[in-house]
Amino acid sequence: MRNQPYAMRDPTAELSPILRERLAPCKDLSTATIGLLSISKERSDEFLDSVAKSLSDGGLSVLRFRKPTYTRPAPETMIQEMVERCDVAIVGLAD
Amino acid sequence: MEFLVVVKRDCETCQMVGPVLASLKASLSVMLYSQDDPTFPEEAGGARDDRGLEESWRRKIEVVPTVIRIEDGNEVERTEGWDRAEWERITGQGGLGAGLPDFKPGCGSRPAEFGMPERLALQFGGMHLASREVEVGEMEDPMEVAYDRGWTDGLPIVPPTDLRIARMLSGTTRKSDEIIGLIPPNLAECTIEKAAISAVMAGCRPEYMPVVLAVVEAALKPQFSMHGLLATLGFAGPVVIVNGPITKRIGMNSKGNALGQGNRANAAIGRALQLLIRNMGGGIPQEIDRSVLGNPGKYTFCFAEDEDDEDWVPLNVARGAKPGTSTVTLFHGDGVQGCVAWHSRTPEEVSRSLAMSLLSVCHPKACQWSKAMLVLCPDHYKIFQNHGWGRHELEAALRDALKRPGHDLIRGAHGVSEGIDPTRAEEIVDKFHEEDGLLVVRAGGKGAGQSAIIGGWPAQRKIDEIKIVSEEVGP
Hints:
The complex is a heterodimer.
Chain A: E1 6-9, E2 33-38, H1 44-57, E3 61-66, H2 76-85, E4 88-92
Parallel strand pairs in A: 2-3, 2-4
Chain B: E1 2-7, H1 12-16, H2 18-27, E2 30-34, E3 48-49, H3 54-58, E4 63-64, E5 66-71, E6 74-80, E7 82-83, H4 84-91, E8 103-104, E9 107-108, H5 116-124, E10 133-136, H6 142-148, H7 162-169, E11 179-183, E12 188-191, H8 192-202, H9 209-219, H10 226-231, E13 237-243, H11 246-249, H12 264-279, E14 302-304, H13 315-318, E15 327-340, H14 347-358, E16 372-376, H15 378-386, H16 391-401, E17 403-405, E18 428-430, E19 438-442, E20 450-456, E21 469-472
């Protein structure tokens, strides 16, 4: 969005690393809802079908999502729906 | 011996002395610098290029032309503007500038232009910021980076870049690495620099800095208990009342909508404290900030008292400050509750109306529990003033009107389990503690008799531990 370097100064007490921490892993998968996102690449459905089956066979709740096209980012409404309904997401990234 | 001269084309005096500089250059060792055009002055064959202003900044050139005599590499003396006698004395040359007036003042030096001192100090190493840098990627929006990192209160912040921080620091004479205190809840050491970063983010101008620093210092007084106020389940947050001449100097609002939006100083000063507590202290809602509901004043709650009427004793003076001093006072306050009393015409009526509304602070049956602030509007004040009432008379009348029989207030009375200890049934009970139990300030616009009540924090009932605090605004 800019053509020159840009930096801000940290307003915090600098008690945490400058790189943002990742979200903590889900502690209890047995009650979690797993979202499976296909990015619409060829054959990702086959892979995710088998992942969904093994998760469901293990008694987990699975929800499926599919991006309209792998050439663009997922629509905001889809991301919001995943945030709202899922505790964990698995993305089938490539063919 | 050599000489250093700094000029710029955009200066009539520099243009006038062009021939003088040519003759000096012909007979002396002269390093001539131009701040805006190295081809100037043509008579002297141009000058060294100081458009980057490094030489001018290092030499602290405040006026052009400036002539400096240098011996053994050190400046011995200098003269600013054109003053024939001074130029002749410093250069040891006679008969300079025949036909010129004896004296003509110079022009402003470019490093002294608005915003330049900080820019040049950062560029040439005169200022060092200690806070770590957070780089923003080429495709990233700084505002979104601030949100992602959790730096904001939910509203956008002004990105704290080096130049903005440096300008904010120019608003105080205090050193940027001075430690103000420990910011709760994490008790992080807060420097003037970190306070300046918060002030930038909150939207302050540099001239607000002395007020921001006074607010932070007041909030950090142990008796204010900022930690408890942040961590409370209650509604309250710090409410800042600013008194004294500083309020006009920085354009604070004490008139219409004083408690509302729309004034930059009111909004940004209160917000700077809240952002500091969030970012330095780690006071995050639903984490250490346990407030059940909070209140909109926790974004910012800061206003000036209206001191335009000389009959009225301002809050800071009532609390012991010398008249004419600028202070901040911090109160642990909830949101605003209106007292609409349009039909009262006598001071007795108005004070009784205000008292009836004040009785509901915290809970109608709570006594000597939360404190309160009454923000007296001009229309109500006028009624008191017309009858010769000042602060003293009003406070006395309110105290009388806020006494109630204990049997109405004890636990269980009127079918309500809230209330005071049943052993006090036969007492006449004050609503508020005598010392600082009810603060009265003046603010607001004309048009209707409606004053505001800002209820206090229930922990104020610990009157020896939790106090309303004031701090004088410093440099």
